[in-house]
Amino acid sequence: MSATNDFQQFESLEDEQLPIAKHKLHNWTHFAGIYAAEHVAATEFVIGATFVALGATTKDILLGLLIGNILAVLSWTFITSPIAVDTRLSLYTYLNKIAGDSMTKLYNWANVIIFTVISAAMITVSATAVRFAFNIPPQLNWYPTNSWFVLIVLIVGSVVVSIAIYGFKAVSEFAGICAPWLFVMFTCGAFVLLPALSLEVLGKPLPNGWADFISLGDQSIWTGVNSDGEAGIGLTEVIGFAWAANTITHFGLIDMALFRFSKKKIYGLTTSTGMMFGHYVAWISAGIMGAGAAVIIGKSIVELDPGDVAYYALGWSGFVIVIVAGWTTAVANLYRAGLAAQAIFKNHSRKKTTIAVGLVTMVVACFPFVFSQILPLLTYAGLLVVPVGAIVFSEHQIFPRIGYTRYWLHYRQLTVSTPAIASWALGLVFGFGLNALNVMSFFYLFIPTWIFTIVVYTFLAGRYGAKRKYPEAEEKERIRNINISKFQEQKAEGERIIIKDTSLFTKLLRGIALLVLLITVVLACNVLFGSEDAEMYTQNREVFYKYAFICTVIYFVTAYWALKRGKIKNT
């Protein structure tokens, strides 16, 4: 087949079905922004309260979350990122190549459902904050009971869909704006409410040292006693919780969809912005904010919703943080859902499939039950996809090392992979069987399930053709990949070049955005360190509420303006 004919073949394919072109790769800052924004989400308020309800101790939280989140970062770095950078393919496209249409469609449908519900839950959370601001009654049933709430959900959801349809670039730009502000506000929230907690427990606005802080945490936040009054979870469970929270994206390899745009494999370490600042700092801050808000309101921390906690921690900026935190997570997950849907409906563009999935997501988001059940969903979704991640890991990383042929199913031109389907099914039986037998902590089930599936798939694939060599097919594949690169280079020549704007005014806008973030931190520090008694604390807190909201408005205006000015397209 001539290169010209190959080019015509590639023209008929959607870009998402081809390896990412070199000129579309991104530096580490893009991924740092995406993970920072996605993993500082409205659910962090819920997870912060969950650790309180589970009865962890302060020391276990501080150490366990650190270890667990480091393990998660390493999982992305050594499992997900290398395969994504090697292939430049999303998991959905790669899986179709090694497992055939039948399993791929089934798996993609599962991912469409999972990520649609996750996105819907985040939209619901954002809408809940707006509901709080406009005094709309809480939605306590599984169905909506107020037409205004439904309208708010649809408006909030339309913003999420409009961002997600523009693809990875729009997702990363949106995340890049939100991430710095989210970091600052979660930290400031803890600063603002820690004195309220300290006044209630220690009788003074600020712990005198580390020992005082541990004592404060043990007495009022992470007490070591769960919501049933029994001994709570320990260090091992906290580590497992933090590590397992994102198994769907690292061990499950879903984030190949993001890291295929990465210039280097080591960019997997950029997930630390989400894990160490997002999960680690945000979960700890959420616990402090929740306990502090509970003291002010006079309720238990587990009775509060994100709107309650955010308002008493940050004032009107609290409404903004719940909305934005919900948006950032919803956008990234809706992008993933659109990719999975496009892998099913190959004759339709990713934009069209994302719009279709987005409309369904908005409808689902109108039903509050999706948020209340988000944690069980994430837990079981992770165990559902880990065997598939193990199959891909086996094919890509293990097969070449033991003399097996990678892509053997593709070379044999088969459409159904019995080894892949059987391995996934057996992996699910094994994983959920261990859960039913209660032989180990649920948080760690993904590890033996992953290893078991690797062993089973490697054995079965060897029996079905992976041990053989396919020199002609491999050469044809090599030539095809060369032609794809040439096609993408040719296509890139006709695309517009983006030139960064380095004008003084753009630099000024960026400087103002950073300045108002710094002012916000200073105001929060004044609440934490400048409150000598309860009366002064209340005054300083009110000052923070007022000016932090002004700083929030200025930040988003200047940051977005700088983003738009920062790119000039050379036609």
UniProtKB/TrEMBL annotation:
It comes from the Bacteria. The chain crosses the membrane at residues 61-85, 106-134, 146-167, 174-197, 238-259, 280-297, 309-332, 353-371, 377-393, 414-436, 442-460, 508-529, 544-563. GO terms for cellular component: plasma membrane. Keywords: Membrane, Transmembrane, Transmembrane helix. InterPro entries: CodB (IPR030191). It comes from Winogradskyella pacifica. This is Purine-cytosine permease-like protein. The keyword Nucleotide-binding does not apply. PANTHER family: CYTOSINE PERMEASE, CYTOSINE TRANSPORTER CODB. GO terms for molecular function: cytosine transmembrane transporter activity.
